[in-house]
Amino acid sequence: MQETTVSTSYIYRGAILNLRVDTVQTSNGKTASREVVEHADSVGIIAIDEQQNLLLVDQFRYPARESLLEIPAGCIDPGETPESAVVRELREETGFNPGYLKKLGGFYLAPGYADEYMHVFLARELSYAPLVAEDTEYIEVIRKPLAEVEEMIRSGRIKDCKTIAALFFIGKTKA
Fold first, then answer.
1. Which listed site, 62, 63, 152, 174, has its alpha carbon 20 to 30 Å from 136?
2. What is the pLDDT, as a whole number, of residue 76?
């Protein structure tokens, strides 16, 4: 099944996202409207230290109106590769540089209305090498044993979808 774009109208253009409304022709010949959030692709990082702790970041998320525990993550800047974005984001958010990186997979974060694709990486052999983070964010790094993470998801302590989805890859690879 396929939909063909007939027309596009931008409703909003912002610093981190755009909102457009497309008129499409569906596979059965009907016309429909699709609202789309355009957002840069991103990276999510499963960073594991030598003690088998997962590095999580605790930060306030304004739309959710609460602090969430999440894996380190961020947008891929224009001209940047996913691998270089992983190194930059991990250093900015946790202060650690990965000595080992492995791409585990990826997924769309909200394909019903957004085009953002997240590349998921495993980072190991962490060495302290901080970069200055954005001055509008307050992030606290939390280390949790991998053995505790599944229960944190079940109990609702971790409820961020990218974190839950990315952690699925741990069971599919040797962490």
1. 152
2. 98
